[in-house]
Amino acid sequence: MANKTQTTAHATQPPVDNGNCDLPRNTLSLFGTDSHMGATIYFDQNSEIYGENEPADYVYKVLSGTVRTYKVLNDGRRQVGAFYLPGDVFGLEIGDEHTFSAEAITDSSILVVKRSAVIAQAARDNGVARELWAATARELRRTQDHLLLLIKNAQERVAAFLLEMADRSQAGGAIELPMSRQDIADYLGLTIETVSRTLTHFETAAAIELPRSRRIVLRNRSVLNKLNA
Amino acid sequence: MANKTQTTAHATQPPVDNGNCDLPRNTLSLFGTDSHMGATIYFDQNSEIYGENEPADYVYKVLSGTVRTYKVLNDGRRQVGAFYLPGDVFGLEIGDEHTFSAEAITDSSILVVKRSAVIAQAARDNGVARELWAATARELRRTQDHLLLLIKNAQERVAAFLLEMADRSQAGGAIELPMSRQDIADYLGLTIETVSRTLTHFETAAAIELPRSRRIVLRNRSVLNKLNA
DNA sequence: CGACCATTTGATATGGATCAAGCGATGTGG
DNA sequence: CCACATCGCTTGATCCATATCAAATGGTCG
Questions:
Q1: CA-derived radius of gyration, chain A
Q2: Contact in structure between A103 and A46 (CB atoms under 8 Å)
Q3: Closest by alpha carbon to B114, among B134, B92, B135?
Q4: Beta carbon of B182 within 7 Å of strand D?
């Protein structure tokens, strides 16, 4: 794990409240009920979980909070690779180093498991091996979808983002966004201004409501779906 | 395999000449020396190897020729997912269906192996299981790199493409492109006009030479590398 | 209350798309 | 063997979506 991490993370006891951490998606049985393999670590908002090019010695699962992975290009621009919500696994690499950095977007509790332990388990149990493969394949699928997003126009990208978040946080209609406009912009390959304008446009078109900047109510999904098609 | 494929492909004897098919990259031992597991099939230029959403019953390895995978969006635009050169494995999915379509860019000979055979082998031999995982992880890495390309400007995208092709075809300085400008444009998320203009610009800047439209000589890599950083 | 930061809104600039025409290689039929 | 059609590529002119630059607004915390 990153050096920087140690300075900001609080390695304390497992959380009392980790309510919505049993989503079916992106879960490894390795992280299942018998979690004696890993430790729960708390990360403060904006603290680094690991950095690009650091050794990938651990695999992570979000118990609560939200995580972003990202890469900073030579010209200083940042590309967010993914957002990880409770239940999601991230940081699983086959190479020895992380290809993206990871940070907690909000205060987060993260289950951390030694990668070597996971791989050793996979060597013994080919069900585990298959799950490891499946998790990587899911990540591949997600990345392909993300790639397809980046060739669309601004409205289509933002609509897709809203629908994705609504779906993943399964909060029927209303989304509480943990991430900033900058995070969204860097995920969608747009500027914050364009994201903001597009949201305003959707609000004007009565497709969404924006009671607060981080709270979005989907009013007319078919409008968004049409853009998403 | 696709129905359409049967009409265009020639299932004939293995090729006499499959010179450069033993690249270290993206190879599965499953496709190694004892290839009794698979059959070699010939595909004519522009013939379909498989279609999006078709059952992913086979895994493929390019012996000679070049393959493109792609997806057509609802608005008719096409995104090329990848180009596969001799030695490359493609079509490996964890779901039951292909997420992209695949076509031969030039007349190609392709080694085809039943997916179920590969998976059965993986269940017995965890070295094979690990390779299966590694192949998917490599594909993930490639897709991540491709995604990062799409947020760059036109010059950077074209430079990256040229360097990638030069590297992969290891033809020291001169590249013989098997794909059209349209293929390149659809891979890079640009139009053919922009690709063409950018190449002309690189030629004017003495970074490349264009003796023929499909032949590109890299004259000054550092210029291209600077853009690629 | 006032400072600060995130977000929105406004005005302008620009890179690449679009529309349109020209060019060069390849192949075909007279 | 040469006109001519065709196709892939290049070049030119213009337009437009989104970036950029700049300022206003609003929510949060001391």
A1: 18
A2: yes
A3: B92
A4: yes
Nucleotides of D under 7 A from a protein CB: 8-13, 17-22, 27-28
Please answer yes or no on whether A147 and B79 come within 8 Å at the CB atom: yes
Per residue of chain B (229 residues), what is the pLDDT tens digit? 433 333 344 433 333 333 333 333 455 666 754 555 789 999 999 999 999 999 999 999 999 999 999 999 999 999 999 999 999 999 999 899 999 999 999 999 999 999 999 999 999 998 999 999 999 999 999 999 999 999 999 999 999 999 999 999 987 789 999 999 999 999 999 999 999 999 999 999 999 999 999 999 999 999 999 999 8
Instruction: Check if the beta carbon of residue A147 is closer than 8 Å to that of residue A188.
Output: no
Instruction: Give me B26's structure tokens.
Output: 């993206």
Structure-block tokens of residue B5: 């494929």
Q: What is the pTM of this model?
A: 0.89
**CB-CB contact of B83 with B45 (8 Å):** no
Q: Would strands A38-43 and A174-176 be described as parallel, antiparallel, or unpaired?
A: unpaired
- Give residue for tokens 């010179």: B19
Question: Pairing between strand A208-212 and A101-104?
Answer: unpaired
